[in-house]
Amino acid sequence: MDELTLDGNAVAGLLAEVFAAEMTTARGTCDHCGAVEAVGAVLVYRGAGFVLRCPHCESVVAKLVTDGSRAWIDLRGLRTLELPG
Amino acid sequence: MPPIVSRGFRGKRRDAPADRVPPGQYVTDDFPVLSAGPTPRTPLADWDFTIAGEVDELHRWTWEELRALPSESVTVDIHCVTKWSKLDTAWEGVSVDTLLDRIETSAEYATAFCDGGYTTNLPLDDLTGGKAWIAYRFGGEPLDPEHGGPARLLVPHLYFWKSAKWVRGLRLTATDEPGFWESNGYHIYGDPWKEQRYWGD
Amino acid sequence: MTALVGRLTWRVAEIAEVRTETPTVKTLALDVEDWPGHRAGQHVDIRLTAEDGYQAERSYSIASAPGGDRVELTVELIEDGEVSPYLTDEARPGDLMELRGPVGGYFVWDPDPGGPVLLVAGGSGVVPLMAMARQRAADGDPVPTRLLYSSRSLEDVIYRDELERLEGDGFDVLHTLTRSQPDGWTGYSRRVDPELLAEVAPPEFALAFVCGPTPFVEAVATALVALGHEPSRIRTERFGPTGG
What is the per-residue pLDDT across B136-178, written as a single tens digit (0 to 9) for each? Predict the structure, then answer.
């Protein structure tokens, strides 16, 4: 973790637009280490796009790119996403 | 609905000659730090640079060996896909031409791979002919880890996500293999003057 | 309880009032079209557009308690920043910006925490925690709540007088001033370290919210876990290197 590291709260607005739902309370299972965390608790790095990393093993859980209307999401690092009721 | 203009907001941009600024870019004097992950901290004693893939044998340089190669000082403009451009940036490093000298390959593409797992792909043509360096000094100082030190790829004619930080080698490939961002929305080539930011641009 | 999502696109906000909190911190009270209301701890994304189309976006935690007409954001001036100098030095009533939100469901006040609540603030990280304290007060909520608030100096303490007024009825505030303290200061005077947390943050707290610069949040969360706090009962919000 660097001092620039953010967390899932920082992409809450973007995720809400993309998924049409509040996503910080969704719980993701890291496909690499199996840890389960709320999206609000994942580490977020800002590069050309956003990179979401597991706070336990730092593997990439998701990548998110948007041009303001289109969005591209890579969820390969996520085994399961649980959306609360 | 057109965006609402916020009276008096300007940001930290500065003016620059139009022929230096690709479409959609804004010039800054800052050097924003953007990263796909935590800053790697590979000790120089463990660091190497390799050229692998479509080659007869692996080519490898230790840090000392890389630093012993002839280096060049270049001043270039850099353009980030997130819309900031920085003009007249001063770098020092080894030309990729120097590293590829006497390496025979039929490959037409390369993938740069890095500490931390980042990758980016380019045609070999864009890494040669004086267009790319393995850069280890910036602004007269050793390259800061947060900006990619000890060494990063420098390919200023393409969007700066192609100038991979913490580069550890090139894998020469027969086909163009989309890297970390190219596989998720960013343009496979990335020419800022044609505004090739995203898929389909 | 379903989170409030509301319209997921940008809406127009007009600055109604600008108030000075400290020499480097201002609160902007905004009138927001079709504001759906919010929960304490949520934030908004702000977008500023310049005359030539240049845009910048930032996120700011909502400072006001739910239920008001206006949305209040408290903004700290970051030296050499791009947006905060505009918001704290230039922006005035009548100015417009775009706003997306409110968003956040993870870092929000829980009306049923199941025990005492700990709030740990580093610098401007106090903003969402202040919204929580204000909501608690407005609701007359008796849940024991402690705010541990780290600031550089007394003049940097945001909401100082209001926090003093809110103390009591189960709410207590502990200040630590890390860089300079006034004569006769009886509060803490060092960084929020494991020893300080051992004194004031025992694992008997049922829920903890930690907000501020990333290094602060990391250090505090790590220390709380080491003290025996349940990791899943520690909610964190990182503001990046400078705290907002």
Answer: 999 999 999 999 999 999 999 999 999 999 999 999 999 999 9
**What's the domain range around B167?**
45-189
Relative to beta strand C96-103, strand C43-49 is: antiparallel
Q: C70's torsion region: left (phi>0), alpha (psi -120 to 50) or beta?
A: beta
For C117-238, CATH number out of 3.40.50.80, 3.30.1490.180, 3.40.50.300, 3.40.50.620 equals 3.40.50.80
Name the residue among C16, C17, C13, C19 with its Cα closest to residue C35. C13
Cβ separation C98–B10 shorter than 8 A? no
Residues in chain A: 85
- C95-120 pLDDT, tens digit each: 999 999 999 999 999 999 999 999 99
Q: Give the number of A-B residue pairs with CB atoms closer than 8 Å.
A: 63
Architecture of domain C11-103: Beta Barrel (2.40)
| Cβ pair A1:C218 closer than 8 A | yes
Read off the pTM.
0.94
ipTM over cut 0.85: yes
Q: How many angstroms away from the CA of A6 is the closest CA of chain B?
A: 11
